[in-house]
UniProtKB/TrEMBL annotation:
This is Argininosuccinate synthase. It is an enzyme of class 6 (ligase). InterPro entries: Arginosuc_syn_C (IPR048268), Arginosuc_syn_N (IPR048267), Arginosuc_synth (IPR001518), Arginosuc_synth_CS (IPR018223), Arginosuc_synth_type_1_subfam (IPR023434), AS_cat/multimer_dom_body (IPR024074), Rossmann-like_a/b/a_fold (IPR014729). GO terms for molecular function: argininosuccinate synthase activity; ATP binding. Pathway: Amino-acid biosynthesis; L-arginine biosynthesis; L-arginine from L-ornithine and carbamoyl phosphate: step 2/3. Homotetramer. Keywords: Amino-acid biosynthesis, Arginine biosynthesis, ATP-binding, Cytoplasm, Ligase, Nucleotide-binding. Residues 4-165 form the Arginosuccinate synthase-like N-terminal domain. ATP binds at residues 8-16, 117.
Length: 404
């Protein structure tokens, strides 16, 4: 039987051309694999048919939207994932699930090799290949765009010569990757980092400078997961989709940063993640009232490390799994409601309530009926400040003047 290679197929120019390129370069039959992670583009049937029309012998298509929302986006939410304090790991979260489906397809179609369409300059090649190594160390992986140096011009030329059913004339100036968690836009005009993003960069968000009237939303969480919006039960996918719409209409979640890639390049990225940024803001505030102080401080460090591991393609690594256990455990009491106002580019928390809150009105209030024993503060400070006091006394003995 002819050898089979499963290609992660997007339906775009590069991977459409890659079907023929791989077949010509290796003699193998190509199986196209496409997953819907909420990228909101063409339907899976159209993509399947195009793959077959471009020469794939089989097509594997999967609606992975709920799986992606529940197992990947929600893990990101629980970790408040923000790489470089800004980017909610939109593309980074999708690569491990695509890799998982690549392996499933390889098993189903008896392939020993898989392929992806990444270039050699980005993070995504690392994420795919490291995930594949963890899930199926026996599988080989090829990357035609990178390893066969497939340029855009060559791809267009190939598509035209072979009359592939793919639009080659419309030159999109940007490289875009999108899913339900957000949208990443790079290249072209944005590579001059002094240039501001133009209107055509954005699709998930409207201009925050001209917002519709303010939109108040109440999000209910159970153990860190959104379960209701304005009292209506929602799945994680529905929560993200609804907030993408409502926060997107207010221009919330636009991010423009120069980012440190794993491969050492600094690159300019524009992101839009209205639902993700709104959910993270709400989730963080709920944690503020439900996590104990030391737990919250430590979780911040865990979040940072988790986020770097996921950005760096280590989704299936042992350390990432260990950190997941900590994060999941920390969510035991992260249940309750957050009320926010979405308006003009900002998602502002205005109210919070929870049966498992640690906020104690009696301890906090400055009014009548407070329960905090203020007389205990003195002794606490005496002991808390004792080591500083000892060190200061030594400075005095040695004649050091700290006011100078
Ligand atoms: N820099 C981002 C990341 O590494 C986004 C990459 C998305 N790819 C793209 N073609 N725009 O996660």
């Amino acid at each position: 039987m002819t050898e089979r290679i499963v290609l992660a197929y997007s339906g775009g120019l590069d991977t459409s051309v890659a079907i023929g390129w791989i077949h010509e370069a290796t003699g193998a039959d190509v199986v196209a694999m496409a997953v819907d992670v909420g990228q909101d583009g063409e339907d899976l049937e159209t993509i399947r048919q195009r793959a077959l029309d471009c020469g794939a012998v089989e097509a594997y298509v999967a609606d992975a939207r709920d799986e992606f929302a529940e197992e990947y986006c929600m893990a990101g939410l629980k970790a408040n994932t923000l790489y470089m304090d800004a980017y909610p790991n939109v593309s980074a979260l999708s690569r491990p699930i695509i890799a998982k489906h690549l392996v499933r397809a390889a098993r189903q179609f008896g392939a020993t090799t898989v392929a992806h369409g990444c270039t050699g300059k980005g993070n995504d090649q690392v994420r795919f290949e490291v995930s594949l190594t963890s899930l199926a160390p026996d599988l080989k992986c090829i990357a035609p765009v990178r390893d066969l140096a497939l340029t855009r011009e060559a791809a267009i030329e190939y598509a035209e010569r072979n009359e592939l059913p793919i639009v080659t004339t419309k030159t999109n100036p940007f490289s875009v990757d999108q899913n339900v968690w957000g949208r990443a836009v790079e290249t072209g005009f944005l590579e001059d980092i002094w240039n501001g993003p133009t209107k055509d960069v954005y699709e998930y968000t409207d201009d925050p400078a001209f917002p519709p009237p303010a939109d108040e939303v109440t999000i209910t969480f159970e153990k860190g997961i959104p379960t209701k919006i304005d009292g209506r039960a929602v799945t994680p996918l529905e929560a993200i989709v609804e907030l993408n719409q409502r926060a997107g209409a207010q221009g919330i979640g636009r991010i423009d940063i120069v980012e440190d890639r794993l491969v050492g390049i600094k690159s300019r990225e524009v992101y839009e993640a209205p639902g993700a940024m709104t959910l993270i803001a709400a989730h963080r505030e709920l944690e503020n009232i439900t996590l104990e102080r030391e737990q919250a401080r430590f979780k911040k460090q865990v979040e940072q490390r988790w986020t770097e591991l996921v950005y760096d393609g280590q989704w299936y690594s042992p350390l990432k799994q260990n950190l997941d256990s900590f994060i999941d455990d920390s969510q035991e009491y992260v249940s309750g409601e957050i009320r926010m106002v979405l308006h003009g580019g900002r998602a502002t928390v205005e109210g919070r309530r929870s049966d498992s809150t640690l906020y104690d009105f009696g301890l906090a209030t400055y009014d009548e009926g407070q329960t905090f024993d203020q007389s205990a503060a003195r002794g606490f400070i005496d002991i808390f400040g004792l080591s500083s006091k000892q060190a200061a006394a030594r400075d005095v003995r040695f004649g050091k003047d700290k006011l100078k």
